[in-house]
Structure formats: C-alpha cells, structure tokens
C-alpha cells in the first residue's frame, strides 16, 4: 500500500529538492498523511481528556471535603501500573525501530510485548476497581466523602482504560498485519504515536487522581 | 436586478432605522436608580450601530445600483482606492472607538451593580425560585434569616422555604408571595433555587440574574418609581416556564410598613 | 529529505461499480459531499416545519393542526400543541438547525465536494474515514429524529440542554427521560462524525495540494474550510466530554452538574457535589466556536462568489486569510459572553466582553473588504450573486445586534429576550443559510451537470430576502420591550400589545417557508431536466471549472494539474476574456 521508498509515478513528480515544502505537490516536512491524521486525532483526544480533567478540577476545588483514601498498597499498585505502561512504551519504541529496519519478526515481537503491557495494565486496573467497589465506592457514593469522588475516579480512569484497551486491539491488528506484510513500517510508527499518547495521558491521571488523593498521616 | 436590490435594500434600511428611532417599540420606562445610565449606554451603542448599519447597507445598495454589467460591457474594473488599507483603518477606528467608549467608559452600570457592595441599610429579601413560582422571605425585626431546611419544604402546607419554626432566627421571618419594597430604598435580593436553573427578570427595574441551585446569588438595586412590576422567570426551567412569575410592588414607605405588618400577622 | 512528493503515498482507487458502492457506501468525496448536503436538506425542511409549528402556536395557540394529534397524541392532544410539546419542538428545531444543517452542508457538504477539486487532488486524504464520518452523522440524525417518536416525547430543555433540567431525568418534566438520553447520544455521535471529518479536511489541505497550489493560491473557500476544520477538531472534543458527563449524570448516578439539596417535584434528589455552571462552561467553550464553524464556510463562499460575479479579484485576500485566522483564534476566548448573567464571577463577565468586542474587528474588516470587492466591478446578477449580496446585508445586520449583546450592562436587559433570538437567527438562520444557497446555485452545475433555473432562483431569492427581514428584524423590536424567549405563550397583559408583531412574523415565516419549496422544486427538477451545464458556466478561474460537469470519478481523469496563478485573476477584458484560469500557463 503506501511506501516511503520513493515515488509511485516518476513522470508526475518534479525533483524532490525543487519543490518548496509548502508549494503544493509534496508533503510538508515529509510527514505522511496517516501520521498527520493521527497527530490531529491525538490533539482532539487530548482536549477531550483535558475537558474531563477540567471538570474534575473544577468540582474538586469547589468541594468542601474531597476524600484522600489511597493508602500505600493503592499507591504502590498505581506506581506498578505506571511502570508497566512506561515499559510498554519502551517496547513500542523498539517495535518502531525494528519495523523501520525491516526486521519483521522483531517488530511483531515488540508489538506483542507492548500489547501485553497494556493487558497487564488493564488487569491491575480492573483488580483495583473491584477492590474499590468492594469497599463501597460507586459513581454516586463512597464511604469517605463527597459522592463526586467515585464519579470523577471512574470516569477518568475508565475513559483512559477504554483507550488502553482499544490500543491493545489496535496494536495486535497492526502486529498481525505487519507480520503478513500488509501494513508498512509507517503504520507501525503511527500506532506508536497513539500508544505513547495513551501513556502520556496516564502521566497526568496518575498524579492528579492518585497522588492527590493519597492518604496523608 | 441590481437596481431592484438597491431599492429594496434602501427601503429595508430606512424602515428599520425609522422604527427604532420612533421608539414605537422600546424599553419600558426605567424605574430604578441605575436604569437611566443603562438606557444611556444603549442609546450610545445604538447610534454607533445605526451609523454602521446605514453606511454599510447604503454602500451595498449603491454599488449594486451602479456597477451592474451591461451588455457588451468592457468597462475596466476599478480597484478600491488604496486597496484594503483604508478599509482596515476604517474598521479599526470604528470598532476601536466603540470598544473604548462602550467597554471602558460604559462599564459604570456593570460596575455599579456587581463591583460595588450594596448600600448600608439595604433591605434584604430572600427569594426562592422553584418549578414554577417565586416566594419571598423578609428577615423580620432581628434582621436575620433562619436556615432553609430543604427536607421541610412543603408547598401544600405553605412552608415554601422549609423553615423550622423552632430555629430562633426563623421565628420572626415573614414569607410572602409578592415582593414589596419601599420606593427609593436600596434592596438586596438573595436569589436561591430549589430545583432547576431559573431566571429573575424585571425589565422596568433593569435587573436580571440567573438563579443557580446550590448557590445564593445577591442582586442589588434601588427602585425609584411606585408601581406594580412583573417578575418573569427567564431561564428555561420546564413545561411551566412561561407561567412562572411574581410581582414586585414598589410602595411608599407608609404603605410598605402597613403591608409588612399585615404580612407578619399572616405567618 | 526536505520534503516528500505527494505522489509517494497517493493510492489510486479504481472507479466504483455497483449501486451500493457508487451511491450508498461510496468513498468518493463528491458522493459523500452530496450525501451530507441532502442530509442537511432533509434536516432543514424538518427544522423549518418545526419552526412553523412553534410560530403558529405563539399566535394561534388553540388551533387544531391537522395530523399533529395523530402523530403525537401526548404532545398535541386533538392537534393542539401543549406547552411542553412547544418546548420539545423548539428544542429539536434548534438542535437540527445548528448541528444537522449549519454544521453539515456548509463544511462537510460543500467542503467535501469542492475542496479536493479546488486544490487539485483526486480525493480527500482518508476516503474510508470520510465515508465513516458521514454514516456516523447519519446515525446521529436517526437518534435525534427518534426522539420525536418515543412515548414521552423529545426533550424540553432547549438545544443548550442546561442542567439540572437536562440531568435529573424524568422527574423534571416530559421528554426528560428517553428523549433527553437519545438527544445526548445523538450529539455525542455527531461529535465523533465531526472530529473524523475535521482531521480529514486538515490533512487533505496540508498534504494533497497539487504542484503550484501554495497556501496563498488557494481559493478563500479552502482557507475557510481549513479554519473551520481546526475549530471543529478543538471544540467538538469538549462537547463530546460534556455529553459523556451528562449521560453519566442521567444514567450512572454521577453528579457532575447537579448540586446537593435539589427538591424536584417534591422529591429530594440524591445528587451532590456538582455544578450546573460546569455544563455551561463546557458547552459554551464548544458553543461559541460552533457558531463560527457555522458561518466561516459561508465567509469563504461569499468572498469567492462576490469576486467571480464582480469580475474582480477579492480585495485584500491576504487580509481576509489573516482575519479568518484571527476570528478562529478569538472564538475560543469569548465563550463567557453567553454566561454574563449565569452566576459566574462578574469580573469574568467584564473580561469576556473585551475579546467579544475585539472579534468584531476582523469581522468588520472582512465585511468592508466584501464591499471593496464589489466596488468598481462588473456585477453579474445571477441568483448566486443575489444571495451573496444578500449575505453581506444580513450578516451586517445580525452582527451589529451582537454589539449590544457583547456588553454585559446591556445584556442585563437583553439576555433571554427576543433580541437575542433575532440576533442569532440573522447571523445563523439567515446569513449562514444564504451562504448555503449561494453555494448551491454556484456549484450545482458542477455537481449535477445541469443548470438550475435562474427565474425560479430569482423568485426564491426575492421572497426569501424580504421575508427574512420581515421575520427577524421585528424580533429586535419586541426584545427591546423585554419579551422573554422560550415562552409557549404570554400571559401577562403588558405583552399583549405585542402579539400583532408575532402575528406579522408568523405570516412572514409561513410565506418565506413556502417559497423554499420553489427552491426545492428547482433543485430536483433541474437535476433531471435542467439544461446541460458546460465546463465553466460562470467563467470562474478555480480548478473545479477546468474539468467536466460533473467531473470524472477521480476529478482530473488521471492527470495531475499544475497551478501557475492565484485564484482571483479577474479584471479587464483582454482578447475577449476577462479571467485567467489557475492552471493556464504562465505569461
């Protein structure tokens, strides 16, 4: 399908160095369209997350008593989840590198490793959710303070977990497709952008949701 | 076709401006202390807007009249003198002067209502809005409002504010269905809602404020003319939104004293 | 590599075969553009009928409307519209018009159709995503129309859906159960469709311009679609979040928008911790850019069309581009002007009014540049041009109303009155619609290979132009009298003398609305029976007029256009021609 390896039809293309980057007939800064499209999607999704985080901040600042229930085990769990996600991003970097070098099995392997990181993240997360639900936390009620704590927690982490899960599926599809030579290294790179974005969002949620609600002495 | 457009547009412009200028439909007479300043600001804005409106529409009409292409027309086109430059300057001058005049000079009204505290000795009245009526509470001789207990609100028993009569501060509170104030007396309304967002709008008093459940919002003004004025709900609150209203009675000091004593006896 | 030839990644698809692939699940931007356009046509006629019902109810509240009683026995028993049904009709009218008319046809309709051709591309950057975004939008429309059929009826909270009314559920009133849920789902789906469309438009404009088509050689229409797409990308993301939170408040017991202590219909609600103002901030942060999303494509079309039919270049092309960018940027800074009286800090009110007045500057510059474009031209009064001239007039009128509302001190009186209704209808319900009409009359020959009937077009224009002033100018007058909006009837004696004005507006609305059927007839009749259109009936310079009417499936028949001129080389007659096509060889 698409390829970075050279023009499809030489006749229709001027020498690459003659055309100014924005002059038409070329891709500015050599950024392929799929990559630009993914970046635009990321900007938009970042704004959606920002709106939800804004809502959380707005309500938390106005709240008289926002619970701080996360004790050491919870914070440790969340830290492990953070480490897992960061590691999966490293795996993703290695997958992109392998794919750009044409190393198909290496790339597929690292893609699967990345997806596995996402799955572990999801499992730890669901385990945590079940624990909190067992303690009585609901979107409309919790034993410690304003009912909005549960609402904000489940909404933000739920939205993020949804993105991780979609990412896992996405990465596996790319892995299978790249393995069968149907997708290109560019497609792997684009999926990497998405995965790193999901990781970045977590780097905001972790401190704003977990650390800010860590139990103080 | 161009000439017809020019004529029709000229008629529309003239008729519209004439109707505004005739004040056939206009604000009701202002009946509060800040009303005059607000009306003055409106007229200033209107003059500025009318100048822009008339000039723009008549230019458009004039150009449509004058520049139609005729058969076999090989007339050279004319670029606007100076190109875009003078039009940009015009826009900057026109809008810029409006901004300075209206924003910075004209902020007096907004500042008077919201940046300055109410006058000392203001009459405080609590307002409770709910689907689909307004109720009012006066603090009585102790000058304090007792707490609102939402669970005790019972319209069938006439306990609109959820007052617990055992609360010491509630004992002398006076709850009414009409809002009455003495003329020339500064008033502070404390707006509350028990269910939806509502609005509080008295056009003659030139006051309006959305009422947000969960917040008590103060609104101060000084009525200057005796009369009976309608209070309209002006934020969509449900199927009875258009029926939700109450009345403001501005009375002489004498009449007000009689009224408040009468209301107290009805509690 | 400093750059990469576009050809390196363009993948050419073969001509589609089969009815489904050609007309239903088509990847062709021209078909998708038409699909969006006809979705908007269906929506606008439905929205117009709803507005007739609203206006009829205001002046003849007890009339039995034929068929309505059978359609909605609960909302209109015996064909008489109940107060709650009035609010429902108003809500769906607003939602349909703002989203499914003004945010589809101007951008996704005309933009999808014309953008790729105008920049010399074969199709959009992501044809499959394009098809997906249309069908998601279609699904959203189905969800919204479904609210008219659910037992409890459509929501009554207005297109703005303020909580608590929209968030507490059925206890707040009729339509606030399933109807409001479907509304929220519809809008959330619409957001997704818009987002996918936006990233397609931006990528296409950045990446797929043909050789020689620099950004500053693009027609103004392409700049308008680009800027609108950026606004969509950034603002619909926030509305999507707001809808998700509203759905959670309604169905999962959360309280993002609901404070504690709500006593609704005698029942104490279990919610606590939320704020109705939070919805307003999120909604209007989207809502204000949204109105620019609705009008900026119209700015593009009008700037373009005024030039074509004045036989003159657009005056101040570069300035217009800068002004459009400024309007786009500033549109994110003014949302609080919808909230002056909301209960937010009055200092915020003062702060928001400053950029609100400042945004008038680029809008005024553009309006003056339109006048400057027409000045000294050789005007051709086609129906398209009439609507373009009409646009300038109605946009100036509507925009000037904004000058009053931008000042919080005046908004104290005017907020929530018919003055506001008159203002936003003039700019959105009239000007933006005129932009759509101008676009239709302009691109119809290219889209359908035939010409529309000019005589019918002129009749349509005249009735509409006079009609809209008759409908919406009086709203400013009764607004000055303090007449509140969203009232199903007026009980107070003070408002009764104004009812003749309402009657006048209703009759004007019915007549103007009826004349839209002239347009509809012209549209469909001309598609099949109109005289065949030449390649370039308007003697216009841009790329879509270099190909046949309608264009081949891949726009340029496999050729790659090269552009040598900017988009507005009109002027003096030389060798019998007063224009230079963008693709004409240089010199």
Helix content of chain A: 55-70%
Which CATH architecture of chain C?
Up-down Bundle
In N-to-C order, the SSE pattern of chain C is EHHHHHHHHEEHHHHHHHHHEE
Question: Mind telling me the C-alpha Rg of chain C?
Answer: 24 Å
Report on this structure:
- The complex is a heterotrimer of chains A (217), B (267) and C (587).
- With 217 residues, chain A is mostly helical.
- Chain A has five helices and one strand.
- Chain A has one domain: Up-down Bundle (Four Helix Bundle (Hemerythrin (Met), subunit A)).
- In chain A, helix 3 (104-134) runs antiparallel to helix 4.
- By secondary structure, chain B is of the alpha+beta class.
- Chain B has two domains: 2-114; 123-265, Sandwich (Immunoglobulin-like), CATH 2.60.40.
- In chain B, the strands form three sheets. A five-stranded mixed sheet of chain B has the order 3-2-1-5-8.
- In chain B, a hairpin with a 2-residue loop joins strand 1 and strand 2.
- Chain B starts with a helix and ends with a helix.
- The model of chain B has no long low-confidence stretch (mean pLDDT 93).
- Chain C is built from 17 helices and five strands.
- Chain C has helices spanning 19-24, 29-59, 68-71, 83-101, 105-118, 127-146, 178-207, 220-251, 276-310, 317-330, 346-358, 360-374, 383-405, 408-414, 418-448, 454-480, 499-529, and strands at 4-5, 263-264, 267-268, 570-574, 577-579.
- Chain C has a two-stranded antiparallel sheet with strand order 2-3. Chain C has a two-stranded antiparallel ribbon with strand order 4-5.
- In chain C, a hairpin with a 2-residue loop joins strand 2 (263-264) and strand 3.
- In chain C, helix 4 (83-101) packs antiparallel against helix 6, helix 5 packs antiparallel against helix 8 (220-251) and helix 10 (317-330) runs antiparallel to helix 12.
- Chains B and C meet through helix 1, helix 2, helix 3, helix 4 and strand 7 of B and helix 4, strand 2, helix 9, helix 11 and helix 12 of C.
